[in-house]
């Protein structure tokens, strides 16, 4: 479903060039759950940003469902992200003053759905992560695990082709982490395509395939025991 | 639909940042309050003057001591005011009589002269304008009587002096008691009160603090020899300028020189109009600066808001917001702040106008539609100009940078 060929990403640090991604080649099939592990500064998040069309690669080819997305206009990229990609961030990225429902609804505000349809979809997504009862609560009053559940509901609400998760358990305690990983396992069982970057091996093990990234290069990783 | 959604989003965000929104709103509120209140006061002042002078009939010509340089009929402007030389009055009651006799277009001619004096009744006393005039004066100014009658021919008898009191003079001397038939002492002379005027509001005039006696009586009891003004009422069918020319002819012949000036009521109104336009222009200019300052204030607050909401903007972009949607959202926020500030400012200025009207009954207290339009136009223009920079800053936020922003 997604295919990266020779992807490079270079940042300028003053006069010095930082090669964060070096010739990344990666294919992920429809319904596959892939995890990418690596230490801090290895380029995991940059790769995820490139995969999520939030950042453009310096060079290389990126095909999404066979369509080249590297040279898309900003306007088309926005539509593409809105309809086909769901994001889950380590720091949840919820609007603290908004309610759970309003946070979940955010991507739908930029679609063409009516208010009624938007609310229906939000309820389904929130039910899926066990947060429907708290839909009227303000995000600021939720626990870390609850915030991440809402963030997952927001990623799912547009029924995207690809879910990208950036360290989704990074800010959670052990018990809460297991709850979130269970949701990801359920999503895998539903046949969702998921890419998760993490440095947590427990999290990485629930994926079908695991890649290791280091010094901007990617390779298959053998975690032993894989997929619980 | 998208615009409506942008407006809804803007309202949500403004509600979330109530403190900043209120700060930004205050500047626009004060500017609108100033603009609307000042323009409305000027408008109402002019309307009141126009209404009152028109109420008297625009067909009046006033002779006053002094001269205007090179003035032709119909050429009355601001420079006229600076071309007047004052002179000791040489106007007499005889001028009024002669003009009335020789100029058919003049239906009434009444002289007026006055001195400041004290009026006494029992232990009460008050300072008044002791005024001498003739029989037709009440008709010329359409004065209403609260008690008794106006002066008549019999009052020319200096052996039995009579007087008509203005409303405030009567109040000061008699309170709520009837004054007619009582005796008031002015300049050591006992006057019998024959009438009391109803209160009369006319901007630029003072009827209430006067005591009116027959013209010859005033000359008899003071050292005054000449009239301060002569009022001529012109027939509805006669041409004002033609009649003014004829009055000029009679008076210059009698005086042997041009030591007076003639002012037509409509010309005076024209002058008020010019003055009002000048003051309005200055007001709009000064308040324009105030709007500019409040616009800069709003821009600064909105720039801070954009900074504070960098992550929110990044998130919105990440989940699919297009640049124009972000632009519209922030522009809508600025515009709503401006319009809300303007609306509240207008309401407050209307309230202040009514409050002013409560203390100055002579002034009307209408909020003219054009003031509302100008206020909203100012706020929209300011909102668009000063809202653009923060909105563009928001558009330039890169989602990937914003997501890293803590």
Task: Provide an overview of this structure.
The complex is a heterodimer of chains A (about 230) and B (about 400). Chain A is an alpha/beta fold and about 230 residues long. Helices cover about 30% and strands about 30% of the residues of chain A. Chain A is built from 7 helices and 10 strands. In chain A, strands 6-7-8-3-9-10 form a 6-stranded mixed beta sheet. In chain A, strands 2-1-4-5 form a 4-stranded antiparallel beta sheet, covered by helices on one side. Chain A is globular. The two termini of chain A are about 25 Å apart. The relative contact order of chain A is 0.20. The mean pLDDT of chain A is about 90. Chain B is elongated. Chain B has helices spanning about 1-15, 20-55, 80, 95-100, 135-140, 165-175, 215-220, 240-255, 265-310, 310-320, 325-360, 370-395, 400-405, and strands at about 60-65, 65-70, 85, 105-120, 125-135, 145-150, 160-165, 185, 190-195, 210-215, 230-235, 260-265. Chain B is built from 13 helices and 12 strands. Chains A and B meet through helix 2 of A and helix 1, helix 10 and helix 13 of B.
Rg of chain A: 17 Å
The largest sheet of chain A has its strands arranged as 6-7-8-3-9-10
Average pLDDT of chain B works out at 86
What overall geometry of chain A do the principal axes of the alpha carbons give? Answer: globular
What can be said about the biggest beta sheet of chain B?
6 strands, mixed, barrel
Which two chains form the greatest contact, residue counts included? A-B, 26 and 20 residues
- What is the arithmetic mean of pLDDT of chain A? 88
Largest sheet of chain A: 6 strands, mixed
Instruction: Kindly report the spatial arrangement of strands forming the biggest sheet of chain B.
Output: 4-5-10-7-9-8
Structural class of chain B: alpha+beta
Strand % of chain A is: 25-35%
The number of helical elements of chain B comes to: 13
Give the quaternary arrangement of the chains: heterodimer
- Number of helices in the DSSP assignment of chain A: 7
